[in-house]
Design goal:
Blueprint lengths: L2 H6 L4 E6 L8 E6 L6 E6 L1 H16 L11 E8 L11 H10 L9 E8 L7 E8 L2 H6 L15
Helix pairs in contact: 2-3
Length: about 160
């Protein structure tokens, strides 16, 4: 069965992704123009561009292109960093952007569940994703809140 057939059948599939650059080094600012006409522009860093290419090859080799189309996604993410002491939130943006560019899904807004876990560091780093279509419980959570909105009144 292809990954698409397994997803369509309701299965969870395993996706192996290379370790992304930190969001702290994902973008670079450059100055365009001179004097009063100067302005800053954000561009992808060389590391980010290289990662996007590597991630595309990983997605292509695992037959993940157009896997989710525009359907909602649930992920259980296992982060095997290059070394201990990483900030887990610094690596999701690059991963999701690269998977969007590889057309695994149309937009990373489709990911409505993203559980993150640190695991044992390994050489080079690795992210193991367990992906499935969002189920009805996941979708129902989008329409509910576990607290009374009035309860936050006056807290900040």
């Amino acid at each position: 069965m292809t990954p698409r057939e397994r997803i369509d059948a309701g299965d969870t599939i395993q996706i192996l992704m290379p370790w992304p650059p930190s969001v702290n080094g994902y973008w670079r600012s450059i100055i365009r123009g001179v004097g009063k006409n100067a302005y800053a522009v954000q561009i992808l860093s060389a590391d980010a561009r290289e990662y996007i290419e590597t991630a595309y090859r990983a997605c292509y080799s695992q037959s993940l292109i157009d896997l989710f189309d525009d359907r909602r996604v649930s992920l259980d993410m296992h982060f095997h960093p290059k070394r201990r002491g990483c900030d887990i939130d610094n690596f999701t943006k690059g991963l999701f952007d690269a998977m969007s560019k590889a057309k695994v899904w149309k937009d990373d807004k489709q990911v409505i569940v993203a559980n993150k876990r640190f695991r044992k560091p390994i050489s080079g780093g690795l992210i193991v994703l367990y992906a499935r279509l969002a189920n009805q419980d996941d979708l129902d959570m989008l329409e509910t809140t576990e607290v009374d909105p009035a309860a936050s009144s006056g807290l900040w």
